[in-house]
Amino acid sequence: MKIVYLDNNATTMVAEEAREEMLPYLGRLYGNPSSMHTFGGQVHRKIETAREQVAALINADPEEIIFTSCGTESDNTAVMSAILSRPGRRHIITTRVEHPAVLNFCKTMARRGFRVTFLPVDKLGRLNPDELSEAITDDTAIVSIMYANNESGVIFPVHEITDIVKSRGALFHTDAVQIAGKIQVDVKKLQCDMMSLSGHKMHAAKGVAALYVKRGTRFEPYIIGGHQEAGRRGGTENVASIAGFGKAAELAKGHVDSGSSKMKDLRDRLQQGLLDTCPGARVNGDPLNRIPNTLNISFEYVEGEAILLRLNEYNICASSGSACTSGSLEPSHVLRAMGVPFTAIHGSVRFSLSRYTTEEEIDFVLEKTPPIIKELRALSPYVQEEGEI
Ligand code: PLP
């Protein structure tokens, strides 16, 4: 049976064109890009082409792109570099809804003696820039706030945030892992100091990512070793994956506008269809300001895990913010920070589309989901007690 893959915020299919681009570097072109000989030199050139392609996606200059192993490494590197290169400043600001790559890193820094402020979000998952203005001081080394949230899809006001951060001389890092390639991202307009991207969220392979570092920003490497990446990240480059990442970035740039409106139309169709047919359904996250591919929806009094298992019987892949399914024992920290009621957190499902998602797939989900919700709600002791149906 065909897979209906609506879990693209977890990872994406490698685009065929990106895979093609990788293959020679897993075969005959195996030279070390740092070698002096021509055989290595051609591999080196491929990395530089990929650097140009990734840079173009966010309107950066190629020298501002450092290839890393994953979005997590990019995030860790950004925060670590800021605190190492500004030893006089001991304060970090982030939000309660960051990906663990930032959140847990900042918690670790708090245990190591840094002061960390975790900004709240409101019921719609929105961040109030005034809270940042109140929290930031001359001791703040870095503000790390994501561009768009991976669970709710909510887009943060990063332009306003840059202005606030700049006014206090701190650095601004934004995790753009979930937004790059989905809508236009322009670092020259944004003027952030650092930005994280990850290949496997945009149809490249897993295990390759990038950190944008604005020219002139003081930088301390996190992975210390050889002279690779202009001395900013040691380790022989993951050439094949970098080649594929470059191609994937080029494709994403070409599709950003058409892909975005297609995903939005399909996402909205899915959302409206589920709201119309499923009792107790409510959307989590600011409906007006979300990345176009993400729908986080709760079905009250139903277990998210149970929904996913039933969808899985039809090869429909989605994910849930309730305990266990996301590999964690805790329900989603994002939905909790948004104050989503317990009963709705447990019944939350995230559908995340890609530019490859089709109308037929969405219609299939709209056909299969309502009976599943109806059946599971009928089994729920809460619904019977409270006379919900
Ligand atoms: N940041 C965000 C917003 C993410 O969604 C993810 C992955 O889900 C990451 C960072 C981590 O990226 P990677 O899986 O490449 O380490």
For the largest beta-sheet, the strand count, sense and barrel status come to: 7 strands, mixed
The poorly predicted ranges are none
Work out the helicity level. 40-55%
Total separate domains: 2
CATH fold field value of the largest domain: Aspartate Aminotransferase, domain 2
Gross morphology is globular
**Strand content range:** 5-15%
User: Going by CATH, what is the homologous superfamily of the largest domain?
Assistant: Type I PLP-dependent aspartate aminotransferase-like (Major domain)
Quote the distance from N terminus to C terminus: 34 Å
The molecules bound to the chains, other than polymers, are: pyridoxal-5'-phosphate
Q: Helix segment count?
A: 14
Radius of gyration: 22 Å
Query: Mean pLDDT score, rounded?
Result: 95
Q: What are the secondary-structure elements, in order, as H or E? A: EHHEHEHEHEHEHEEHHEEHEEHHEHH
Architecture (CATH level 2) name of the largest domain: 3-Layer(aba) Sandwich
Q: Can you walk through the features of this model?
A:
Helix content is 42%, strand content 14%. Helix 7 (187-190) links the parallel strand 6 (171-175) and strand 7. It is globular, with a radius of gyration of 22 Å. The protein folds into two domains: 4-10 and 256-386, Aspartate Aminotransferase, domain 1, CATH 3.90.1150.10; 16-252, 3-Layer(aba) Sandwich (Aspartate Aminotransferase, domain 2), CATH 3.40.640. The protein is built from 14 helices and 13 strands. The model has no long low-confidence stretch (mean pLDDT 95). By secondary structure, it is of the alpha/beta class. Strands 2-8-7-6-5-3-4 form a seven-stranded mixed sheet, sandwiched between helices. The protein has a four-stranded antiparallel sheet with strand order 9-10-13-12, covered by helices on one side. Strands 1-11 form a two-stranded parallel sheet. Bound molecules: pyridoxal-5'-phosphate (PLP). Residues 70-72, 75, 99, 101, 146, 150, 175, 177-178, 198, 200, 209 line the site of pyridoxal-5'-phosphate (PLP).
